[in-house]
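Worked example

This section walks through a single chain of length 366. The input is the sequence exactly as stored; nothing has been trimmed or padded.
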Amino acid sequence: MLQSIARSCGTAAQAAAASIRQLVLGTLLALAVGVQAQQPVPLKLRVVGGLAGVTQFTHLEKPFWTADLARLSGGRYSAEIVAFDRAGVPGADMLRLLQLGVVPLGTVLMSSLSAQQPHYTAADLPGLNPDMATLRASLAAARPALEQALRREHGVEPLAIYVYPAQVLFCRAHLRGLQDLRGRLVRVSSAAQGDFVTALGAQPRLLAFAQFMPSIQAGTLDCAITGTMSGNALSLHQHTRYLHAMPITWGLAIFGANRAAWQALPADLRELLQVQLPRLEAAIWHSAEEETAQGLACNTGQASCTRGQRGTMKLVAASVQDEQLRRQVVRTSVLPRWLERCGARCAELWRSTMGPIHGIELPPEP
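Given that input, the structure is written out below as tokens.
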């Protein structure tokens, strides 16, 4: 099953790469003109952002690049941004395109790396972080190693790490808890999420964010794991009846730059971005926490819903049994399968970072 999931994360089509090359050509030409003229010229960056149609992109990323950058730089710099799922770029190929310089500034969903480069997903393994405070601690522990690997192995300069609202279960049929997933077809966004639901007796189906709604509407999927508020934006609450409150994952994303392209930018622009992007990161994390709560409220029709459509879903709170199942599945399935895909490298990463935080020790090396 998970072999088919891994195969689904294919390489980018040549047409997608050509499209992105066209997207960034203006930036490269602007840089070349500036060098030849030996004088400052207005520089417009081309940026590949996160998922289209969600708050992170529409209310935070896009305004920063299309409006705030020009204001903060006194008009010296501006940018255009396109969501990666509108640019024809498969998520699994974004890191490679950054490494090649085809995309000079772009966003990589960590979940898209779970099959090919699983060491980048250590901080947000399914079932590991039942709340945002735990997620913050996990990322703080893993971040230095993650950033070092991006620079050393891929030539990518990490500039920010974003987070999406909690990824939870939306189900069509009656759901009392995680144990009821047995036998159901569940949409997942990564191989690791597939490990989690498989351990619960469900059958995972790897589908991109923009692709799973037709299957829900047609009744060929029983459940879907997606963000609390992004599911509301898709009107998922109109096609499912039960919403489980436990975060399966959160959805971390790396925003980075090809290092050669980064070094080619004017020094004052790099300094400005090094100050402002951490602020954008903090705003995105704050928004994700708020949207997690808003998504739960809106999908279930609570009065506290102010940002989305009010639904009539039944909220299923995480029970003591659910918490026990979550911990058991992480220890006996998610973590071992992650280590199988990644090997000794991930074992060492776990021992030195995540294990002490979560109290999950690995057996000593033979």
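What to look for: Residues 267-299 form the longest helix (33 residues).
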